[in-house]
Amino acid sequence: MDFTFSDYQESADFLREKLHGFVPEVLLILGSGLGFLGDTVESPVYVDYGTIPHFRPSTAPDHKGRFVFGTLRGKRVAVMQGRMHCYEGYSMEEAAYGVRVLRLLGADKLIVTNAAGAVNTGFSAGDLMLITDHIKLFDFGPLRGPNLAEFGTRFPDMTAVYTPRLIGLAREVAARQKLTLREGVYMYFPGPQFETPAEVRAARILGADAVGMSTVPETIVAAHCGYEILGVTLCSNMAAGVLPQPLSGAEVNETAEASAPRFSALILGCLEAM
Prior knowledge:
Largest sheet: 5 strands, mixed, barrel
Mean pLDDT: 92
Number of strands: 9
Strand content: 15-25%
Radius of gyration: 17 Å
Distance between the termini: 35 Å
């Protein structure tokens, strides 16, 4: 469906009433393995997605499906504990709906995380990858339909979706933490099935370093409406065909849990340095 600017305003107004003057600076969209960061927010205000006008619930496993507003590492944050995916039956616009709502509330920086399969054979399961660019070849994007000029131009530039300033900041934080931080291109696949070995080989030929089922809808919308964007991927497994073994959601969750301390330290360090 096509949302109107009034729809976004109605959602933002609903949240303003809950927040009593609190204005978020940074929106964090937490993928697999990092949802617990929302539980560390100081003076939290919780708002379930399902209570917000026009918002869609998150049905993915282990996604709490709520906002947490408050302070984290000295920054005023809005944390999404769980996101919407197109494989849940949502359009890209629905999957990215919260990004525009939070822009109306004042957020101008986005930290987005995900778990994905490593395509680059030089990577290993458990590696963290700084997203420098992305590839999306499937279906229409989240800006399909009438352009909402209140958010941005009809034909937005995608040359630097992931903000060079924040990429540099993440490199500095990783160096201080003595953390190996890979860098690469994230390729979007709609899911929910994992990619085939042939699709993974094609992704590698096209220049992808990791493949996943989220993040790109949100970042396109965020770039359109003027956010600075930092994206980090947890390579939770080697993508199909890289190793002679099948893939499973359980493997993704196990790697995410084991990598949580390093992953969260990087994200919190970047947040503090913003």
